Amino acid sequence: VPFLTNAIWITWKYSHRIAFESRRNILQKYRFLFFRFHPHAYFYGLVLVLRSLLFCLVPVCIRNDPGLQVVALSFLIMSFSQIQCVLRPWRADICNTLDAIFNLFLMVLLICAPLASGFEADQRPLQVLGLVAVCSILGLGLAVLLNIVYRLVMT
Q1: Which of 8, 45, 90, 118 could form a disulfide with 95 if both were Cys (CB 3.0 to 4.6 A apart)?
Q2: To the nearest whole percent, how much of the chain has pLDDT over 70?
Q3: What whole-number distance in Å separates Cα of residue 105 and Cα of residue 108?
């Protein structure tokens, strides 16, 4: 937690510290958080640290339900993959492409491994998550539709 707090603080103050020559020596210590990414995505090192923390917390927080662990990890992988695809933070374009491909392979592995092992999962939490997902998609679709109608009426 102290490392995460420090990474958040350094990322928050990055633009201010980079502007002053006297403070650059402090940034040299935290170069690993920033040097691999485009300037528009200087904060992506913090995103990677948060992703790693959340991946580690899933089995800790969800101990007795492997089905829910698979769903939670799938959600995390898809969410962070979407962030990566939108931002394209890596300096080298091939790294952006490879990151997206590796996330796809990780999703396939995550989905196939439980099927091959034949584990038993509690159906109730998965049903609730499925219902929440369907309701969220329908709500989002309704919001988009209402936004389109509103724009048509107002113009």
Answers
A1: 90
A2: 91
A3: 5
